[in-house]
Amino acid sequence: MPIDEEPRVLAIILGGGKGTRLYPLTKERSKPAVAFGGKYRIVDIPISNCINSGYKKIYLLTQFNSASLHLHITKSYNFDRFSGGFVEILAAEQTLEHSGWYEGTADAVRKNFIHFKTQKPTHYIILSGDQLYKMDLRAFMNEHIRSGAEITIATTAVNRKDASGFGIMKIDENNNVTQFMEKPKPDMNIDAWKIPQEARGSLPKEKEYLASMGIYIFNAKTMEDMLGGENEKYTDFGKEILPLAIGKKKINSYIFDGYWEDIGTIRSFYDANIALCGPNPEFDFVGYQKQPIYTHMRNLPPSKINSADVNHSLLSEGCIITDAKIEKSVIGVRSIIKEGTKLSGVIMMGADYYDSEEEINEFKKEGKPFTGIGKNCQISNTIIDKNAKIGDNCKIGITGCKYEDGDHGAFYSADGIIVIRKDAVIPSGTEI
Questions:
Q1: Which of 320, 343, 305, 321 is CA-nearest to residue 420?
Q2: Residues 95-128 pLDDT 10s
Q3: Positive/negative CA dihedral, 412, 414, 416, 419
Q4: Among 2, 34, 106, 283, fewest CB within 10 Å belongs to which?
Q5: Each residue of 254-283: pLDDT tens digit?
Q6: What's the whole-model pTM score?
Q7: Is the model's pLDDT at 17 over the cut of 90?
Q8: Residue 94: CB atoms within 10 Å
Q9: Residues 6+ apart with CB under 8 A from 306
Q10: What total number of domains does the chain contain?
Q11: 51 with 137, same domain?
Q12: For residue 72, is it within any domain?
């Protein structure tokens, strides 16, 4: 296709599987629906990248815990009738041809061709629903068309240590992908897979290998060829379809040198959120005002701060914070934080509602905590999921106790991070 001919692009965001690595945040919601950065959901990142790049026909494929995600999408993304844009969820469904769940990323796309083909696309952009990055997808598409590739894989440069956690691409001096290797073992010699000098540009010296970002562009016909016929038994893009296409299709690498982070685990999710609190974070919501990250417009009141000490933190709208000390923390919408409480390194996802007068009176009678955090609490290294009720004088994440990864009742431990469950009730005086 000539570069001056406007392609008809469908963006497909993969919602992921059960999200076990992000459990318990994914106990009642899919990975893309997990709250991020105080007021957003993870899915807002890839959707905003699409919208800002001018691609407004977006399908989101999911099959686990999709109710919360569906509600967020419905409230957040409404295009006018003249734009032709949409964000539509396609959950796994039974049809006369297919009766099972999505069995992998490629299988999910294959089972939805019946919906995609009505848009008569010339190209598909495949995106992950649980990554943090900002990419000009139109530049990505233009490079794909300019190169004459049938498939383009977005790649990021990594060092040898990190290469063992990714699918690694071998390319020639013209960025053509010639080989693919899934997660090479740390002691394996992969010197022959280093990025050719002609393709390096200004990449850091220590980053000598190209890792797949799980972001692809396919020509529509190529996608149908690779997922149809004798290939119908293959279910995954990264492990099966792309290695199979090498040597049969022209595949290019698009080297992305901007910020990119996979936030699929509790530790990576926590670190990515806390990193937002720095004075000059690599991923900065404020710096993206010309290409904003979109989300649900809640029409909440401004946050009310009653004599608080807040440093290097993000505060979302609708909060009420009284005589508290907050540092290096992300505070979500409708968060209530009472007198004397100290938070350090806390991700507080906030609440879906404010307690009513009737509920407050009932909680008082029963001696139960209100939604939010009570008085004189000390909390550190903790994720507090939505609608949690934490009483007075609680100590969480500062007691020195070390917990095995796993379920501990009202809380969960993962990679040294305490996760207070959604809707959890933590009585006054609790120490975790």
A1: 343
A2: 546 556 677 889 899 989 989 999 999 999 999 9
A3: negative
A4: 2
A5: 999 988 988 889 999 999 999 999 998 988
A6: 0.92
A7: no
A8: 9
A9: 320, 321, 322, 323
A10: 2
A11: yes
A12: yes
